[in-house]
Design a protein that fits this description.
Length: 418
């Protein structure tokens, strides 16, 4: 592998990535320099990966801890070039997510607790920035919390990069299913969702679905607090029911269900060189998804240079086509099952999103029933109040008649005395 490029040389690599194909001989050197730079990230992320997993599972019960997913990946070539195109003023050395970690937790409550204590015990890791897309979702509906971490690079021969910036994403399982579902939809339609290159109906469908996912996240909590402010609950429920009707209408218009059903079977997984039980979280896994051959292939490596070389071969192949014919990504994960749950988009597995939609409908049905029961209860209480007041009115009317009669009697006596 060639020497790590300086920051200026790396920025020239970024410029060259936008002109791939113009000079094939020069492209080889560009890929070598890019891979030399990308190779720095796996080593610095591994200890953080372990720390993130330990912190995420520390307070959870055993059955909940099993649901926690922590993975790391090196940014794909097509994602790098797409980002450089989206942000023309950005230099490759400024890109903060070449290395990426992702923590997927069971619930919103788990995310809140995790982020409060994030990396509190580690003195070697600095948090350089944070964006909370759960509190303020992106316009396209994306939700999650992103941190930029500054990690020490202990490689003695890397003078230009004593520290490296890595992105850490924290999201719930529901938010993760939505996000990977969007990526699958983009592949199905051969669109780039991050650039806004979407049909308006598809875009609005996923924005609505994001709102419904957020509802699902807080459903149980809302049901428990029903009655505290019934009028607002009833109003918000009516709005949400309208949203779900709108989503169903758009889903029918875009033929979303039919398109997703056609991809509902997971692509065959071919594990080469190593059996599932031998996968370790410290090993590199190269995922190759070929849409034309309809298969996903995973290869495990202990030799990082070989892994990056093979990644480059596939990236060149997929980048040479105007249509997205496949994806290649280098990751580290605990096992095959964890890998599939972390990257369902690389298996073109739409089942999680379809199951989520079923869950949303079920929860909304319960939500609606609860509102109806509370409305019935509230109506009964109001009717009882009306009956009480009507009865009081009748009693008071009777008293009034008595008082009027006594008044007449008094008036009659007064006339007699005159």
């Amino acid at each position: 592998m060639c020497l790590i490029p300086s920051k200026k040389a790396l920025d020239r690599v970024g410029d060259a990535l936008l002109r791939l194909g113009e000079n094939p001989e020069a492209d080889d050197l560009v890929f070598q320099q890019l891979n030399s730079y990308r190779s720095l990230f796996n080593k610095v992320m591994l200890p953080v990966n372990t720390a993130c997993r330990n912190q995420a599972t520390r307070r959870l019960k055993a059955n909940e801890a099993k649901k926690v997913i922590v993975v790391q990946r090196i940014k794909r070539l097509d994602s790098i070039t797409a980002k450089l195109n989206r942000f023309p003023s950005m230099q490759l050395s400024q890109m903060q997510d070449i290395g990426g970690l992702r923590v997927i937790l069971p619930s919103i409550g788990d995310v809140e607790i995790y982020t409060k204590n994030l990396l509190a015990r580690s003195k070697k890791i600095k948090i350089k920035g944070m964006k909370n897309y759960i509190a303020s979702p992106k316009e396209d509906g994306y939700r999650g919390i992103h941190y930029i971490l500054e990690l020490e690079n202990n490689a003695t021969d890397v003078v230009p990069f004593p520290t490296l910036l890595v992105e850490l994403q924290v999201r719930t399982q529901v938010q993760h299913i939505w996000a990977t579902g969007v990526e699958i939809a983009a592949i199905i339609n051969n669109k780039n969702y991050k650039t806004g290159d979407w049909d308006a109906d598809w875009k609005e469908s996923f924005i609505l679905l994001s709102h419904l996912c957020a509802l699902l996240e807080t459903m149980d909590k809302n049901i428990d607090t029903f009655g505290v402010d019934f009028d607002n609950i009833k109003k918000s429920t009516e709005i949400l029911l309208k949203k779900i009707d709108s989503f169903v209408t758009l889903a029918r218009k875009t033929n979303l269900a039919k398109k997703f059903n056609s991809f509902s079977k997971v692509l065959p997984l071919l594990v080469k060189e190593i059996k599932q039980k031998q996968f370790k979280h410290t090993e590199l896994l190269l995922l190759i998804t070929d849409f034309e051959l309809n298969k996903t292939e995973v290869t495990a490596y202990t030799d990082e240079k070989l892994a990056l070389d093979h990644l480059t071969v596939w990236e060149k192949r997929f980048s040479s086509s105007s249509k997205q014919t496949g994806q290649a990504v280098l990751v580290s994960a605990k096992d095959i099952l964890n890998l599939k749950e972390a990257y369902p988009n690389y298996y073109m597995d739409t089942n999680p999103l379809q199951e989520l939609w079923t869950d949303i409908q079920h929860k909304l049905s319960l939500y609606k029933q609860k509102v109806a029961l509370l409305l019935e209860q509230k109506t009964k209480e109001e009717q009882e109040k009306i009956f009480f007041y009507e009865n009081q009115i009748r009693i008071n009317e009777g008293k009034l008649l008595v008082l009027k009669a006594r008044k007449k009697q008094i008036q009659a006596k007064l006339k007699e005395t005159e």
